[in-house]
Amino acid sequence: MSDAPSRSSKRRRVVTKLPPSSAQGRDRWILSYADFITLLFAFFVALYSLSLKNAGDEQRLKETLHGVFDAVQKSIKPINIGEPIVGEPKDIEVVETKPIPAAPPTIEESNSSAVYDLLSQVVENQFSGLHATGQISVTESANWVSLELKSGLLFGQGEYDLTNEAVALLILVANVLKVHPSVILVEGNTDDLPVNSSRLVSNWHLSSLRSSSVVDELVYRGVDPKMIAPLGFSSEHPKVRNTNDYARQQNRRVILRISKREADNLYDYLFK
Hints:
This protein is of the alpha+beta class. Helices cover 49% and strands 11% of the residues. The protein is built from eleven helices and five strands; from the N terminus they run H-H-H-H-H-H-E-E-H-H-E-H-E-H-E-H. It has helices spanning 3-16, 22-25, 29-50, 57-76, 109-126, 128-132, 151-154, 164-179, 203-220, 245-251, 266-271, and strands at 136-140, 144-150, 184-189, 228-232, 253-259. A five-stranded mixed beta sheet has the order 1-2-5-3-4. The longest helix has 22 residues, at 29-50. Residues 74-82 and 103-112 have low confidence and may be disordered.
């Protein structure tokens, strides 16, 4: 009778000697499972965000992913103990950027103004009557100084040989251009009437030959041939509509366009 109680007490002792941490170890898998479920949730949220097709989807996708992964990051981020460091590191070198300076202007105001002033002075002093009747004029724009000469002042009707008056005028013009060398385009323009000459095929030929005659004379008087070239526009660039004889007379003209921009030669000015 005395042996039975002693055995039961021993059995109870064995049960009570189980390690106390066995119950806690059985629940550690919940942490890994929770992390897995969180990441899986983030993955499906990302897939859902990628399927958005409306306007502003990129911003919504960015905000969604940021919120989800920030939440996941917080779940595994260690807890900081103590006061966080506030402020920027002192060893960061700040580089000051300087604005790119604007390209210097390529127009020399003194040079361009001198060309315009000298040509205007020549026209007013030597050819005031022609200037008053509109046979010759000088104008200036942002990029060009233009000297317009009516064809009746330079050529005979349907001709491309310069008159004596034209040669006298171009000598004075050449003297100004030699002092202030610039790129020069000489434009020939006609009216819309067909040419009536066996030597000419069309107004294209007439306008080109007239501008070439002016270029030849200026080069002969000392203008650099690398800085000048003729252009023929036929009747394709009228000043006014060709509705009557007076209008056609206005359209028959030669224009010297003197560039304000510096250049070594005309070819580089146009093609480089």
